[in-house]
Design brief:
With 256 residues, the protein is mostly helical. It is 74% helix and 0% strand. The protein has 10 helices and no strands. Helix 2 (39-59) runs antiparallel to helix 3 and helix 3 runs antiparallel to helix 6 (125-141). The termini are far apart.
Length: 256
């Protein structure tokens, strides 16, 4: 998969290449959007930040906690900046509207109007550039990242993430199968989704060397992660909609 390169060196190289591509998108001034970045570029940069978070999770037992926390804070800010025009609750409402008809569609259209943040007033490229440069410098100059054993990365990182994802997903199954008819909280959905996404991102790192079974597992995990993200966004939207002064019939229609 990575020739004679040590696995830790391969991980660092992969991170630096991903960051370089994101920085190129940030520095590209051809975008005509008010916020300075194309929607596709924002999505790509947010995805890179999510994958880098998974690399830090993979290495967390072998790096300084302060270094990891600083990286996590910066990467989460990158994701928030890229997603500020389409927060999760808005994405959920848009997906519901695609299938809605009649009065339900009118209701969702009105709610979407209230959730519209409007066009961005600040070009976020400078902020993103600063954060991504700081992250690139971490991967370039923090020696511990190149000294992690393959065993630590695989056993304490990848396998631990998969076990956590499996355990948390089974807990969600038990909640949905309970006779009480409960639904999982947003916190549970978000936590399970985060660990499933870590596993997906780890397999993305290994994608060139995956067997057919590995590619199949990655496909199923990716589907599961997307479903959990959707459910979490719907839960966020439900909480937001509950804050509006909806008439009883409108509230019932929205619940359906």
């Amino acid at each position: 998969m990575y020739g004679r390169m040590q696995f830790a060196d391969f991980v660092v190289s992969w991170a630096l290449q991903s960051l370089s591509k994101s920085l190129q998108k940030v520095s590209d001034r051809r975008s005509e959007t008010p916020g300075g970045l194309r929607c596709s570029d924002e999505k790509a940069i947010a995805l890179t930040a999510e994958r880098l978070l998974s690399l830090w999770q993979m290495a967390q037992w072998s790096v300084a906690r302060l270094e990891q926390k600083a990286a996590q804070a910066d990467l989460k800010t990158v994701i928030a900046l890229c997603n500020q025009s389409r927060p999760p609750e808005r994405q959920a409402a848009e997906r519901l509207l695609e299938r809605a008809e009649g009065k339900a569609a009118l209701l969702l259209t009105d709610l979407l109007a209230t959730l519209d943040p409007g066009p961005p007033t600040v070009d976020i490229r400078e902020q993103l550039g600063t954060l991504l440069q700081a992250e690139s410098e971490r991967w370039r100059s923090y020696p511990a990242l190149r000294q992690i054993s393959e065993e630590a990365l695989v056993d304490h990182g990848m396998l631990r993430a998969f076990e956590k994802a499996n355990d948390l997903s089974r807990r969600l199954d038990r909640i949905s199968d309970s006779s009480e008819g409960r639904s999982a909280s947003g916190k549970r959905l978000q936590r399970a989704g985060r660990w499933v996404r870590h596993s997906v991102n780890h397999l993305e790192l290994l994608r060139p060397a995956l067997s057919e079974a590995g590619r199949t597992r990655r496909w199923h995990l990716n589907r599961l992660a997307a479903k959990l993200d959707d459910q979490w966004a719907l839960e966020r939207f439900a909480r937001t909609a509950a804050l509006f002064d909806l008439k009883p019939k409108a509230s019932v229609r929205l619940d359906r």
